[in-house]
Every structure is written in C-alpha cells, then in structure tokens.
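B., you asked whether I could sanity-check this one before it goes into the benchmark set. Here's the sequence:
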Amino acid sequence: MEPKTENRYEAPTSRFSSFPPPTQGSWNSKYPSSGSNSYSSRDNYHSGKDYSSRDNHRSSRDNHSHSRDYSRDSDRKSYSSYRPSYSAQDKEKQREYDRDNRDNSSKPRGGKMQEAGANLPKIDWSQVELTPFQKNFYTESSAVKDRHQSEVDKYRAEHQIVIRSSYAPRPVTSFEETGFPTYIKDQLITRFKTPSPIQSQGWPSALGGNDVIGIAQTGSGKTISFLLPGFVHINAQPSLRYGDGPIMLVLAPTRELAMQIQEECLKFSRDAKVYSTCVYGGTDKWPQKRELQKGNHIIVATPGRLLDFLEMGVINLKRVTYLVLDEADRMLDMGFEPQIRKIVSQIRPDRQTLMFSATWPREIQKLALEFCREKPIHIVIGSNDLSVNLRIKQNIEVMDNSMKQFRCAQLIQNVVNGSKVLIFTQTKKGADQLTYFLGSSGVQAHSIHGDKTQGQRDFIMRQFKTGRTNILVATDLAARGLDVADIRYVINYDFPTNIEDYIHRVGRTGRAGRDGVSYTFFSRDDYRHSYKLIDILQETDQEIPDDLYRIARRPIPRRSSTPAPPQYQYQQQPKHSYIPSGENKGN
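And here's what the prediction gave me:
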C-alpha cells in the first residue's frame, strides 16, 4: 500500500514559485504519485544529506519559497503579502457591528432571525375542534366582598393603582384573601409581608380568567403576578400526555430575563408539582431539546430560539392556554413583532393572555391589544408615563467624557463602601476598558456583555449574586430582568440611547421595597435626552444640576439658599476642564 503524499503547506501558485522536482533518493522518487508535485521539507532528510543540527535543517528548509513556516520572519513576510490586511479601524467596526447576539440585539440584522418561522405550518383554527378548558378560579373572599367601596378607593389611591379598563376586581390586601392553594400561600407568607400593588390587583384579575395588561415599575413583583395564577391554571387542566406541548408559555426579550423568570418559577414549581424549562439563544440547542422532549408544563423562552424548536418539530403550542409576554414593549421595540406573531398563530385563539411591563408607549398599544382576544383589564401602577421608583435617589453629574473613569473609581472607593454596584456602559469595548481601569486602580470588577459565552455570563452572575464580587460592569443586556435584590448603587457610566432604557437601568436598584442610589454621568454629547431627563427628575423631586438646564436650554429655577450637595460641575474656562465644586483649584 502506497503512503499518501503529504502537502500541508499548499499555497496559491501565483504567489509562490513552482515546486522543484524530486531529488534522487527522496520520498517522492521512491513512492511516485501520479499528477502530484507534492514536496515537503522532509525530502532533504531522505536525500542523504546530513544535518548536524536543527538550525541547519530549518535554514535549509526555509530556502524553498514554497515552505511556509510562519514562525520565521521571511515566511511571515511572504504570507502577509497575499493575506488581506485589516486596519485597527476595520477591526473596531467589526467588533462593534453587532452589539449582542440574535436574542439580545437592539434590532434584528437579517440572517437566521428574520427567516425564523418561515416554514411553520399555518393553522386554521376555525377548522379545529377546540377542547374547552377552565380559566376562572377566583372566588372573592368575604373580607374583600364586605369591604366598602370607599376603602377600596382609598387603598388604590394610597398605592397609586389606576384602572384603565371598564372593569376590574377589588384588590386583595393580604395573602389570605388571594384564594391561592396552601402550597402557594405558605411560601408567600414566609417570603413576603404583604402583596405589592401590582400583585394585589393583578392576582384577582388573572385568577378570574381575564386578559391582563399590567404596567408597573421595575422591582415591583410583576414576575410573581403572572406566575402564581399560572400554577393554579395548570393544575386545573388535564395531565400532559406524550407529545403534548406546554400549557403555559412565557416570552421574554432577552436570555437574562428568561433565566430570571425560570429561577423564580423553580421556587414554587416543586410544591406545585409543575415542570418547567427555559430555552434561549446563544448556547447549544441539544441540551434544551432533550429537556423539551421530556414534557414540561411551563416553557420560558426567547422568541428566536422558540421558533427554531417549533420549526424542528420538537414541540408544539396547541395546548397553550396561558400566554404571558413579559417586557412586551421591549420585545416589540427590539423588532420581535414578526416572530411573536408567528408564535401566537400557533396558539389557540381562546387562550388567556397577560402582558406585563414597566412602560407602555402609545405606538404599541394597538398592536398589543390585538394579542388579547378579550377586552383586557388594564392596570397601571403610578402612571402610563415614564417614571422611576420614588425610593431611588437619582444623582446627575455633568462632566466631560475624559473624566468618567476617574470619577467612577472615586465613587467606588469613597461612596460605595463595599455595597453591590452595577455599572452600565454603552458598548462592549467600553465595559472591558472600564473593568481594566478599575482593576488597575485596585478595584476588583467583572464585565458582562454579548461577547461573553453563556458559561462565562452565568459564572459572573453567580459571583455577583453570591457577593464574591460586588462590582459588575454591564451593557444594556442586564438592564431588564436582572433581579438582584441587594444592589445598592447603579452607575450610568454612559447615558443610554433612549430614556426608556434609563428607567430600566436605574430600576435595578431599590427593589423589593429597599432604598437605592443612582449616579448618571451626563455629557454634552447626550444633549438630546436632557429635556426628558429633567422631566423625570422633576416628577420624582430630585436635585437637578444647573448645567443640565443649560444643556437643555431651559431656564434655571430659583432655589432656596440651602447649598446643594457638591457635584462635578461643568467649567467653561479652561475648555474641557471639570473640577469638583468645593475643591481647591490650585495655588
């Protein structure tokens, strides 16, 4: 049997000279190969030449222009002559082109995401005989029924509960009034004191089988508002059979939010005897596929990955009777509308639909109402306008971009005092650069963004949640769904691209009834957001620096004689110089 001719360094003939003929006694002369001019550096060894050292052997081998040992300078020079070169600017554009992966990008950019669901079969539900199901499980307790309407109005006014629909059940003020089974009620009493406003009004609405739209601030308990009625709904349905899909489907815009919902679900699912799983992009499909094939009552998913499994025939949604869209405005804003429509088309039309979010822009209200087949109960905690939790102290500091790193390090060293800090940057490169700068300043920090693998992101989040690291630098992928209750400080190192993301960033602190503090670095490059930012600060009665009024070209209101706390003030002279007020400018 003839040995195979080896040519590991094949190269374009236009850039390299032709191969020399095999010498007498060489490997190719002893074992000729038809139609092959293969030649390698080991041919000289078989030609009878004696090399006393490895260096002599390498120098002889490198004399041939076809030998491509890239560890040598001569060969590296010839290799770079035909390899296309990329400048640093081109590499930077390539890294910043896609800020996150398919499920976390701000806008879908072609490719697989736009084609997802193209092969899904269309279901004509008018030709399908639908099995009736039960969805009304709420019985008003005697304490709620006997409560006078004036007391109900007073409770709603105190907790800023606004009903935008024509009907809504009375809110519950304690866990005993909810009507939940014992296995849910016991855990609620153990973990919480009283229901939050969105829970007190949302639970009776969802348990009654109504479609619900819930608008509430971040950290107000929206996740439990739709999960717990879903457990009751699932246990009232017939058991799953082989090949059945889930009964409850929860859609989330990002994998981080999907994982947070799954973690909250696992806290109650064991006692409820309900099985759940979470599917999202950015990781291997096959472990998720095996979990789906086992059969689950609840699936928490991002739209893109769920469509992949639907096209593969791994699952179907014909048994879904309880649909939840969490952060619905964010999903539609990210361009998931076509994917959501394809998913909803696979679900029976008489389902129960719930939508929860922190904001509810007007441009998507009409589209959201299309998903609710019945007239929904619209619950608003606070107002439909953008608002920040009143427990959060917002600090705005106007400064030049060159001062941000030093000011951030100063805040962490002098103000934070070991508390958990979440720092937001606009780009992945900025997150890594800030993490490196903090590390060189003696501050241990980790960064999380779309370029990290899922394993790395999970590890960093575990470190942050358990307190092994107290400083996390993140892009906007962590702005929604990141549920770490003991985050004390949020620093907006870069101002977000829209005011809605500012609301969600700041909302990562002050959760579960705790107080929080946020610091926002605002530069003149962010002038387009100054007007709306002032409105938000005025609504929550926050201190507004004069430089922010100047950037927004709004008159500076008169203040009392009480001096304002020291801030980083913008100095006009000298140009691009920012000196903290109260410090000595020099002798």
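One thing to flag: The longest helix spans residues 255-272. Otherwise nothing jumped out at me.
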